[in-house]
Amino acid sequence: MLLKKNIPVNYVVGKIKGELILVAAYGIIIALFHQFFPSLRISIPIAVPAILATIISLLLAFRSNQAYDRWWEARGIWGAIVNDSRSLAREMTTFLGMNDGSEEIETFKKRFLNRQIAWCYSLSQSLRGQNAYIRSIDFLVDEEVKFTRRFSNMPNALLKLHGMDLRLAHRNGWLNDYQQVQIDGTINRLCDAMGKCERIKNTVFPVTYSLYIHFCLYLFIALLPFGLIEYFGMFEVPLIIAIAAAFLLVEKMAIHLQDPFENKPTDTPTTAISQTIERDLKQMMNDSPEIGLNSKSDQDKESVYYIL
Amino acid sequence: MLLKKNIPVNYVVGKIKGELILVAAYGIIIALFHQFFPSLRISIPIAVPAILATIISLLLAFRSNQAYDRWWEARGIWGAIVNDSRSLAREMTTFLGMNDGSEEIETFKKRFLNRQIAWCYSLSQSLRGQNAYIRSIDFLVDEEVKFTRRFSNMPNALLKLHGMDLRLAHRNGWLNDYQQVQIDGTINRLCDAMGKCERIKNTVFPVTYSLYIHFCLYLFIALLPFGLIEYFGMFEVPLIIAIAAAFLLVEKMAIHLQDPFENKPTDTPTTAISQTIERDLKQMMNDSPEIGLNSKSDQDKESVYYIL
Amino acid sequence: MLLKKNIPVNYVVGKIKGELILVAAYGIIIALFHQFFPSLRISIPIAVPAILATIISLLLAFRSNQAYDRWWEARGIWGAIVNDSRSLAREMTTFLGMNDGSEEIETFKKRFLNRQIAWCYSLSQSLRGQNAYIRSIDFLVDEEVKFTRRFSNMPNALLKLHGMDLRLAHRNGWLNDYQQVQIDGTINRLCDAMGKCERIKNTVFPVTYSLYIHFCLYLFIALLPFGLIEYFGMFEVPLIIAIAAAFLLVEKMAIHLQDPFENKPTDTPTTAISQTIERDLKQMMNDSPEIGLNSKSDQDKESVYYIL
Amino acid sequence: MLLKKNIPVNYVVGKIKGELILVAAYGIIIALFHQFFPSLRISIPIAVPAILATIISLLLAFRSNQAYDRWWEARGIWGAIVNDSRSLAREMTTFLGMNDGSEEIETFKKRFLNRQIAWCYSLSQSLRGQNAYIRSIDFLVDEEVKFTRRFSNMPNALLKLHGMDLRLAHRNGWLNDYQQVQIDGTINRLCDAMGKCERIKNTVFPVTYSLYIHFCLYLFIALLPFGLIEYFGMFEVPLIIAIAAAFLLVEKMAIHLQDPFENKPTDTPTTAISQTIERDLKQMMNDSPEIGLNSKSDQDKESVYYIL
Amino acid sequence: MLLKKNIPVNYVVGKIKGELILVAAYGIIIALFHQFFPSLRISIPIAVPAILATIISLLLAFRSNQAYDRWWEARGIWGAIVNDSRSLAREMTTFLGMNDGSEEIETFKKRFLNRQIAWCYSLSQSLRGQNAYIRSIDFLVDEEVKFTRRFSNMPNALLKLHGMDLRLAHRNGWLNDYQQVQIDGTINRLCDAMGKCERIKNTVFPVTYSLYIHFCLYLFIALLPFGLIEYFGMFEVPLIIAIAAAFLLVEKMAIHLQDPFENKPTDTPTTAISQTIERDLKQMMNDSPEIGLNSKSDQDKESVYYIL
Q1: Domain residue extents for chain D
Q2: What ipTM, to 2 d.p.?
Q3: Per the similarity annotation, which family is this (chains A, B, C, D, E) (predicted)?
Q4: Can you give the pLDDT at residue D275?
């Protein structure tokens, strides 16, 4: 269970290749120096790097925790977007269905749900700093696109269009008073999810911590050979590389996890999630006549993107 | 209280048997080497493996925490499914009951609650990557089965059927406006629970951590004999096995806890919980005339599956 | 403030008496051996047990945290039951009061609130694995008792009766549509609380952790004398007992806290809380004409049971 | 920013004065003994107290965390009381205002909001184990006082009066159906806040932990001089006092934080918060014609009480 | 990714410049003394400062955690304010829009949304202890300003005006009963957010911790040279400065994070967030005809202020 098929190990190792080469060179120089200039041998008690290691472990644990929490919160928000999109689709299709058979209502429902799909794609794109229209434009009618052009925040504009359609449906008597308010509550939750994503995206993890940990880490690596060389001789080189690699990997992972919307392979898979929403909403609208795929293969497809 | 009757200790130990044999062989080789080649004795200060032990402890604590949180969250979600299923059943049976005596309503209620039971089973099955129809099909009528075949996500299809039945009940005047919206809120919560389970199922725990901890652990075990052999001689072998077993068990447990829907004996007992829901809902529908079992024996039955 | 009057210190110490006697005997044997067989003296560096102590501290901290969280969650759930019972009573007495003076409504209210008291007692009893009828039966009419006999889960049956009474009140026009739905929401919250208690009761804390910590602890205690004897001689015996007692107490406490519904003096005081609910609800029903006790004495009564 | 003007440092130090004098005496005796009886010198490796220090740090961290969480939760609950009191006042003044000009409604509103102020004061008093009527009685009419005398729990009685007034307003047509239910929801939240405060007040922090930490701490202080005296001689005395003071202060603070309703200067400032609520509600009722104070001075007044 | 363009490193380092100069001077004096008075050399085992380092790390981790939580909570509250402001705007524009075309309603909507913008600015200002009218007055009509002058808490006064306008809209039939209650719920959430900000602002972090950590830190720095000088000689000076800088930076950061409303460059960017709300609400009111900026540039503008 430890290893998933598609781990981009090369991708991960590639991130710290540069650092590791430097560390190796540094270790070799120290070892050679130790070998050929016995009179200049410097050796420090192992306790000094040990203390640093403990402190770094504590700080990395703190940092990993916070980074993991951000990442998990981001994942949870997109999970909530899935849930609320499905709830919205169910409510729109079953509340409005009171007057079945009307062509007008069917068109209305379809436009509404397509706009919800567009909302997911546009939020995904704009969180990654890319053009919010790229995929979403396929699910919008021209008037809607024109309307959203006036807004800085396209997903917010789409939510306003949701609200305006809700008013239309209420005015036409397709929704009763309670149903309007209930669906409005669902849209509020989507609005909350959008704002939470923006908060995570826009709030930088305190930089001092990063710098401090980084600095302690290099201090530790610089001292380590002097503490080990007495016992291990030339063998200290692989040991130093191994220990340094471990610490650097954990630090790297925290850096990746803490910014889950940066269009990297380790991101929250917002595009894959949006595709799931598209599939589910299309099936709930009834315009996807093919037999459903089995759900397992979908999971495989998704999990490819989750790995660090 | 520490030991529950049904602990599959063998199951647990079996998981690390392979590793322990290797560790034992390694320890014996070192000890023999130490014994018969005194001139080549290598001994390192105990502080070196000690540092590694502290770091590993911190990282395992972090990891166990996250794994435990995932497991506990999964358990909490299924607890919420129990609660919302009961609430749904209570609301359906008491809200709709306004026009008692009607055969049609009774059939309707029964179909609705049976579908809720089917929903639990199908969610349980599909989370484990198994055929979602296996148990649930017994609680569905043919039309429902046919309807769900069009969907990739069967539990979601059942929720849509819930919503359509709600519309039917509202249109027939069996539910008033508020009651429809109230029950719709309960279905929304079920939809949330479903999405949360999928999130846990589909989100892989960051693999780098696993690899890093695994790697540190073996490094630690490899160094440990050299640190202990000076003081313990041959006695280092059982000591090494004991310490290695402890660390490996904790790591193994974290690996198990972090994926609570994998059809292993340590999973969230979704099938047992679904059976509890089936029992409760059947009794609330009144078609289970037998005297209730005492609740204790049920607990025993369930707890068998909870143990790691 | 550290010590509360009623600490059952004996109760606590009694739990680890057996272990302590063994530890003392073990320490004495080692010390005597050390004294009389100087040639066989074994002494290990203090660093070895020290490492184990650090690891055990980390694991006990993790475990205490989880156990404390379970205990605090259980306490919080029963706090919520108090709140929702009071809210339910307030809503029933003030919503239904629209047609004051009617004998029928007064009887109805009384039956409803009595059933809520019965619900608390029956939940408390069934969580502890005891007969759910023992106290609750005094607050139920015969028909209700007969109805609940058909259910495995008595508290759930009582909630269904709540729902049926709500329907009755609504049909008779005693409650308007909104009020029915609002009270239904309160009953949903009680249903949630019930399910959460069952979840805590039925979910065993992962046994591997317990075993692992237990095992490490004894390994640590077994090694400790050899690390201390060089510096302390015979004085190591009280020191070992003191340190072992401390660790064992913390472990014991975690074991107790993690299962808060086991009918032990350290449990969540569900019976005392149910009595508080009974008192409050009776006073809100107006059939308790005596002057209220001052609230302080009640607190004293309760706090007796909270101590470990 | 570290020091606030009004820190009662004396208050804090006063709490541990006794302990510190004992520690100083103990340190001096050891040092003199060491000086004048060189043949009996006892010196233990610094590692022994060091291990204890690490363990105590971990346990104090756990305890501080839980104590801080209780204190912060208590503060959060009173924050929620402020919010809900304001919401209640806003809802009462704007919902009921539909029929402006009526003398009767104005009196009704005033009585309701005064009762809400009384509720805050009575909750604050009864949490501290004091007479719940002391300040609150000024805001109640005689009938209300008489009514509450029948209850053990005065704040709960006031909430019931709230509910009865809500019924009155509904029956008189001053509130429509939705408004009654909405305000009832706000009262439910106040009821929850009350119950949560009682839960914190009545739930004792597990005593074993306290005892265990206390015991470890004194063991540590007793061993410390023997570990330091070799390196520091007479200078160990101030060092021991300093280290002991630090640990004792942290322990003391945890003890204070964990019980936030005990009428100590470090409590949750329930009285000050109640005064803020009184001020805000009076201004919202319009019977406070003076120009508002600037908000800064209020903050100063409050923050005086928050410091430990 | 580690470094953002606009890190005010000088700002950060400036904060600890004084301390670092003192530390450097201290280290140099010790080193010179060691060099020139060999007979008076004092050297302590490295274990003594090592223990202190571990303890300080644990305490700083606890403190950083709490400070980070306060900061993140503050950020989350302002995120919720964004969400609820948008929801409020969407609800006001689409619920009230039932009678489109009416000049009166359009004026009403505009006044309402402008007041919401004013509320954000006034809350931002008053949290920082500044004049609450500075920016907000531009968005208020004279009557509103006059009304708020009577209140100590201006944002609360604005919420009361919101409620009064809601009553007006309801009385005029612009909003139906459910819509009034739904919008009232949104205002309640804004009221909660306001109270939560005040809670964080007014609750001082327990001062004892700060003092204790500060004190331990200086004790540690004072002892450190004596532990290192034996191995490093004059090289201990840069090492001491580096280690001291690291600890002092982490402490400083905790101090900054724990008070997120103090008008410092590391604050929660309440003004920038208010500007975002202003932009979004203006666009939703339709009086901002220009084409929206792309959202990326906005994020850059904001993130400037988030860095420590």
Answers
A1: 74-204+270-286
A2: 0.82
A3: Belongs to the anion channel-forming bestrophin (TC 1.A.46) family.
A4: 92
